[in-house]
Amino acid sequence: MITQFVENLPQGMSTPDFTRKPIALTIQEGKTAIFRSIVTGNPSPNVTWTRSKGDLSDGDRFKIIYETISGEYQLQMPDVGVDQAGTYKCFAENEYGKAVVTATLNIIEGKRSTTSLFNSIRENVADFKNLLKTGERQKEDRLPGEPDEHFWELLLSADRKDYERICAEYGVTDFRWMLKKLNEKKREREEEQAQFVEHLSNLKPIEIKTPGCAEFEFEMELKDQNSRIFLYKVQKSLFALNHSLKQIGRKFVFSVKDLDPEDAGLYQVDVEGVNVFSTDFKIPSVDFLVKIQEVKAIEREDAVFECVLSNPMPQITWLGKNVPLQQGEKHDITVSEDKLIHRLVVKDCLQLDKGIYTAVVGIKSCNAWLVVEADNDPSTHGKKKARKTTQAGGGGADLAKIAAEQNAKIQKAREEMLEKMRQERAEMVAAMAENGEEAVAEAVTANQDAVRPSVLLCSPDPGVHFTRGLEDVKAIIGCTAELICKLSKENIDGVWYKDGEELSSSEDVSLVRDGAFHKLVIRNCKEEDSGKYRFEADGRKTEAMLTVEDPPRINPDDLAKFSEPVIIKTGQNASFQLSFVGQEPLKIQWYNEDEEVLIDNHVRIEKSSTQSRLILTKCVRKQSGEIKIKIKNVFGTIEATTKLTVLDKPTPPQNPVEIVEASSHCVEIKWRAPKDNGGSPIINYNLERQQLGRNTWKKIGMIPGIPHYKDTDVDHGRKYCYRIRAVTAEGTSEVMETDDIQAGTKAYPGPPSAPKVVSAFKDCINLSWTPPANTGGTNIVGYNLEKRKRGSNLWGPVNPPEEPIKAKQVAVKDVVEGIEYEFRVSAINFSGAGEPSPPSEFVFARDPKMRPNFTDRKLKTFLVIRAGNSARVNINFVASPLPTITWLKDGMAVSKRVTISNTEGSSQLLIPSSERLDTGVYSIVVSNLVGQETCSIEIRVTDDPKPPGPVELEQNVPGTVTLSWTPSPDEKRDDRLHYMVAKRDSVKQTWRTVADHLYNNKFTVANILPGREFLFRVYAKNDMGVSEPTESNKWEVFILTLPESKNCKFEAAPSFLLPLKKHSNPPGYECYMSCAVKGDPAPHITWYRDNVSLNTNTNYYISNTCGVCSLLILRVGPKDTGEYKVVAESPLGRAECSTTLTVRGKHAHMIYL
């Protein structure tokens, strides 16, 4: 810090300043500690030293020296002690100002030797952890609200891509301030390190390499090889059996073995008290809910290992035989969207892949075996096994369910934590508003973590910053490359740099600004364009590397020419040539059917930096196939393929020869075409025939290229042999000779396989079999089937001999229920029936076991019965074996009045003369050895209701009459009984229903007009019908004297007194909609459905009586669903009212008996 005493400095004069500041020291007790500083200023300043914990008056312990040669001011402390640790300040002052710099001295206690430490460890292993901590670093004082010193130490050793994560962990949001402060600390750190370190690079943060072991490493070259290296963990030095630091050349590797939660923390490496590397080791609080399981896979099949974690992790470490595995062609590592399920797929398993595979997360691990079994498929013996598409292992839906449950728990805990933080923040903000900044300082002092939200609220505006930084770009030479970044604000100018040199627009370089986006476009990229590019704006900068690559490339015209197929004849030469470009060195390989072509007597390969040529001499047929060239350099690989066809004569036709017919008048044969036609289609077949016993061959001649021939020039009983050759444009194949074939001799077929029982029932047994391997030289024309009962020696035919069975399966219906049978079958060819097959297994003629199941799809579940009538319920079912049937009424056994009749497949419940006490829920339970099924039916027994008692009238409100009546005698016995009220007045003389579905004994009738007589009737109703009415006395006639009326105008625009209501009806039922409208003159009414007029639609009944508008749909269907609207129009205006009709599913049926 520099303080200037005067406002304007005289010319040539300056305030004091430090060109070299004293640095913090961490040193072993008993060594010499030296603080050095170099100051400038005119006039020369006076330099003094002070100490925070005492004075420097002891000349033996504190020596202040000035070296005139180097201009250094030194504070030396020989044989330093623990009590000298603390903060030291250096002051430089002249008449124009004062400069102050602070440095910290940390002392490591050195009272115990290494030997005594090891001895104490051996003597008392229980106190092992305490013995590891032998020293402690001095912590610097910091102001409230400032980030922890660990924050800066981590940033100084971290990559730029990790800055955002570290800032988020420590609650720092002012990135502009952070970067400025970090640059200052970097300069200070570099100055400190320059004293002892010559080179420092490749800083790799700590991470778990193998189960139970974590490592971090860096490369460092010291100026003095005798400089001491100290290891710290959270300000404390390390010395333990499970910690080790080894040096391999310039590489230093630090490892922690036998990990436990106490090993988490900040690890630091110091050289003579100067920090060179810091890394934070975090052990996640996570465990395995489901561990990986052993997997058994067949060769060329994929193996899947899956595990479920207790907390989300973006990735875990997979090991195969203690070797870390990476995503690639051999291994596929994936993680679920919720980051709980982690999967490793070992592709194309081979024998060398078997072993132990391990999943590691934090300090937890689990392992399992991968067992690779040989593929014993006989069809693949001697061949290269094909890749299988199946997978072995994996947890499937069970793991997904476990992960979903765990994710729900995590989300719930997270919401509870966020809610708690919101409450704490609200309380803190309220305290700040009440007490001001002093309260914030007190809160910071009391609990730094808790006050961090309030500190964030007070952070200054971060200003311009990058919302999207530059990213490394790889470009192909000669193409265009773009580097793009985005600022938080628009219209901000910036500067582009390449390797530290400022860039400007040119013919091949364009600097583009589009709002907040800044773009650097480099056209026709060259090798010299590679380098580090930086963009700076408003003190912020972002960097990225541009790598100009020169991978192998092929001209499209040359590739098209190369891809054209090459067709030659056997013995000729084939040449393939392809030109390309790419950076050397280039690796060029040629392949024939995926096998690399190597130079030999018949193969010559020519290579250069721009082309390669493959020459195949004296080609043979087996060289036909795909020819591929692969060109590779450090930047990539490219491939090109073509086709080589070598023409040759075909191979011989293939055995076996199928004898279609060998009768007394002809021999008809078929054979298979050659395995290889030599690259040309088969034109003809050349046939010869020899009769057994003769030495000559008769030439039959050429036949068309169909592998089939019918020879009619044969003698009955003689044997013939045929020679067959295939003919193509390239020549004639070698001969294929048939076996001897006899014309017309009987040859019976061999026995078929034993019949297999497909299914068995009480009246039918289904059988199937396979045909015989030996057909006797002719086709199989049918089969004879025989049966035999257990214990009998007599076989009986199933089918008549003159009606052989054509198919290879049959349904035998001539069986007796409960009898056990066995069957055998014989094949029939042109010669006759052959030997019978072995007998089948014994099988009973009975139905298979079946769980009871009710077959009535439209079973009535509610019945209403008139008292005195009979009630009958029929239930149909299927079950095998025969089930036990039980009827229950309301969960209890039915009474003796109920008759139960059971038959095979049905049961009947009969109540001859039903009474009201028979009402209830009747259940049938059908059970057998396989299971049971239950069905319930509600039966309600009732009768015509009896009329209610006397009706009394009472007027409580003018214009209304309240009716009350004595309940019907059936009300207590019938819970569905209700009442209906009808009214008649002296003017209309007709009865009109005013209320229905009343379940009480009182009702108030409105609209009782003066001057009229009224009569009322009350009916009792239930599921059977309506009772006789109970009529009230006449209501008296009232005379009302009205005042003289005055003329008034009643004209009014249309309006709705009662709107339409929503309706939801089942299909097949009627729907009645109504509304009330008023208006003078009377408005014209129009009904609409989905804006289509219904007034002329005969499917709808529309009426308008005294302003009550009604619409009736007799049978509602799905097409009636929609919006219904009523429009009332008159010269004075227009009014609308709408509703919706929904057609829902069917309800249970109700029948009346």
From TrEMBL:
Residues 400-434 form a coiled coil. Keywords: Coiled coil, Cytoplasm, Immunoglobulin domain, Repeat. CDD domains: FN3 (cd00063). Residues 652-748, 751-848, 947-1044 form the Fibronectin type-III domain. InterPro entries: FN3_dom (IPR003961), FN3_sf (IPR036116), Ig-like_dom (IPR007110), Ig-like_dom_sf (IPR036179), Ig-like_fold (IPR013783), Ig_I-set (IPR013098), Ig_sub (IPR003599), Ig_sub2 (IPR003598). It is found in: Cytoplasm. Pfam families: fn3 (PF00041), I-set (PF07679), THB (PF18362). SUPFAM superfamilies: Fibronectin type III, Immunoglobulin. Its main location: cytoplasm. Residues 377-396 are annotated as: Disordered. It comes from the Eukaryota. GO terms for cellular component: M band. Residues 16-106, 284-361, 462-547, 852-942, 1054-1142 form the Ig-like domain. GO terms for biological process: sarcomere organization. This is Immunoglobulin like and fibronectin type III domain containing 1, tandem duplicate 3. It comes from Denticeps clupeoides. The lineage of its organism: Eukaryota, Metazoa, Chordata, Craniata, Vertebrata. The gene is LOC114801025.
